[in-house]
Amino acid sequence: MREYNVAILGATGAVGTRMIQQLEQSTIPTKSVKLLASSRSAGKKLKFKGKELTVEETTPDSFNGIDLVLASAGGSVSAKYLPEAVKRGAVCVDNTSHFRMDPEVPLVVPEINADRVEEHRGILSDPNCSTIQMVMALGPIYRKFGLKQVICSTYQAVSGAGQSALNELMEESQQVLNGEPVHPKILPTKGDKKHYQMAFNLLPQIDVFHDDGYTHEEWKMIHETKKILLNDMNAKDIKVTATCVRVPIRIAHGETVYFEVEDKSATADQIRDLLEKAPGVVVQDDPAHQIYPQSILAEGKRDTFVGRIRPDLENKGAFNMWVVSDNLLKGAAWNAVQIAEELVKRDLVRVPDNPYIPENK
Ligand code: A2P
After folding, report:
1. Is residue 92 within 8 Å of 82, Cβ to Cβ?
2. Which residues are catalytic?
3. What class has domain 4-128+332-345?
């Protein structure tokens, strides 16, 4: 049996630490595991399968001898290092948004479009956390009943903005409770000019704004959903729109999803049955007993939880549902490790003869 030399890029981050944990619990046979981050955390010790490993500063040569890279260190870090890793023969599963819309890069949610891994030329992308949980619920519905339109509102946990944002939320919450002033430096998004209080607040901005008034997170949800379901980021067959809101919770995004199916005879019971059988989806939907998905119950779980499935009262063929999932697991680390498992299963942890090295394009 082949064993793999694996590197985790961004190993000290909110997603990276979970990549370590998900890799430990996966079916991937590891010969060695290398933990990479910036110079700030070089020398730090983290454990893999009970063994202490030392975090190393990332350089292009960190990828010599590596077969598989799991990356979650930010888009610019992936842009710089993944081409270097591919040049050195490593297959990369990237959790950042950097390569997601590149036509040469498969964008994969294994339960929905696993076969796309066959097309990889060195880099594969993990979709955005809010997209993954939405397509986990919509994928089976699309296949059975067709989809005309999707309108999503998100309630996104702060951990999606990284460990430092999570620290900011905790600090601010304590400060507000103590009646002290807060000093926001990161949220709503590190890359923008102004920063606002997140504790006890809602911020309708995730990532930066485009000229059309949508945020980049909203743009990602629209185009990634189309790329995953229709294999074309600009496909017109399904209309998708989103409003993304950051809420002051730590982990597990919630989403209200309004969707209109092609087959107007579809019923809420049929959709519930379909999702009960869908891999990776757990239906929690019993209003009479107040059963519905909750973020604190989804935290630490790999599944996507769906509830409140109900027909729209005025539009036949339209429905509403509530979707919750751990944004750091299915939304990031677990989905990335699942892609890697799929590559291992199909013996595809090898860079093909015509590798895709973006900087050389
Ligand atoms: P470090 O701990 O050294 O800063 P998060 O998403 O939680 O903010 O984590 C980001 C991850 O990306 C961390 O592991 C961080 O390492 C890593 N990282 C940030 N900048 C770089 C860089 N220039 N090179 C390699 N890793 C980086």
Report:
1. yes
2. 129, 253
3. alpha beta
Q: What's the pTM?
A: 0.97
- Output the residue whose Cα is nearest ligand 1's atom 20: 38
Instruction: State the distance from the centre of ligand 1 to the C-alpha of 37, rounded, in angstroms.
Output: 5
Closest atom, ligand 1, to C-alpha of 164: 8
How does pLDDT run across 256-313, given as a tens digit for each residue? Answer: 999 999 999 999 999 999 999 999 999 999 999 999 999 999 999 999 999 999 999 9
Could you tell me the fold of the domain covering 131-327? Answer: Dihydrodipicolinate Reductase; domain 2 (3.30.360)
> Comparing C-alpha atoms, which of 50, 49, 86 is closest to residue 71?
86
Q: How far is CA 110 from CA 117, 156, 327, 346, 358, in A?
A: 9, 22, 16, 13, 24
Ligand 1 center–CA 12 separation, angstroms: 7
Q: Whose Cα sits closest to atom 8 in ligand 1?
A: 162
Domain definitions of the chain by residue range: 4-128+332-345, 131-327
* Cα–ligand 1 centroid distance for 311 (angstroms): 44
